[in-house]
């Protein structure tokens, strides 16, 4: 079914999910927000974890990885506190952006009503059709609830590694986030 009308200026709501809401989802959330503003795309970004410890501050390694991007200077990184994924987050999200296949499977198992709006960042950066049509319609066209997910879609978790691994993860995320924002 073709889209019915160009999307209005209402911001899309992205929910970015990783395991602990301490590294990947946090970095991607800041990057998506920054890139959306830079490119004039209305976007609300919320982050959460599938197995988060509520209220944890951002790690020093995650901060260092974000600091490697001059364009993110001034991001309010000190304000971040980890959050557990809750049904209300999923209800409000236009799109759920997962960092790995296991996160997609988690949403499918525990929140099947959101399965059709959930995919990995890597898949969305490659497969989401760009355009002015409503994001919800373009997401629905992907039939995400039925798409097989694979570990090759994962952005590797830097947790437990040294700062250089966090920075490498951030670089990978930045490229994927830039591509996704272009498609939104």
Verbal overview:
The protein is of the alpha/beta class and 184 residues long. It has a single domain, classed as 3-Layer(aba) Sandwich (Rossmann fold). The protein has seven helices and four strands; from the N terminus they run βαβααβαβααα. A four-stranded parallel β-sheet has the order 2-1-3-4, sandwiched between helices. β1, α1 (24-38) and β2 form a beta-alpha-beta unit. The longest helix has 21 residues, at 163-183. The chain is globular and about 40 Å long. It starts with 11 loop residues before the first strand and ends with a helix. Mean pLDDT is 92; it is low at 1-7.
Mean pLDDT: 92
The first-to-last residue Cα distance is 20 Å
Please outline the major beta sheet. 4 strands, parallel
How do the strands of the widest beta sheet line up side by side?
Answer: 2-1-3-4
SSE class:
alpha/beta
The helix fraction, in percent, is 25-40%
Main CATH class: Alpha Beta
Rg, Å, rounded? 15 Å
Provide a count of the helices. 7
């Amino acid at each position: 079914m073709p889209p019915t009308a160009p999307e209005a200026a209402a911001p899309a709501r992205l929910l970015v999910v990783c395991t602990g809401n301490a590294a990947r989802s946090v970095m991607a959330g800041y990057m998506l927000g920054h890139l959306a503003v830079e490119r004039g795309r209305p976007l609300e970004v919320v982050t959460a974890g599938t197995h988060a410890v509520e209220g944890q501050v951002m790690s020093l390694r995650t901060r260092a990885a974000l600091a490697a991007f001059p364009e993110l200077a001034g991001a309010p990184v000190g304000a971040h506190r980890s959050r557990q994924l809750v049904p209300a987050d999923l209800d409000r999200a236009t799109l759920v952006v997962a960092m790995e296949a296991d996160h997609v499977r988690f949403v499918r198992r525990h929140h099947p009503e959101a399965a059709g709006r959930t995919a990995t960042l890597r898949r969305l950066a490659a497969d989401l059709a760009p355009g002015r049509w409503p994001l919800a319609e373009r997401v629905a066209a992907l039939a995400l609830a039925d798409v097989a997910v694979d570990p090759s879609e994962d952005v590797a978790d830097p947790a437990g590694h040294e700062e250089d691994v966090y920075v490498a993860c951030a670089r990978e995320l930045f490229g994927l986030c830039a591509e996704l924002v272009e498609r939104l």
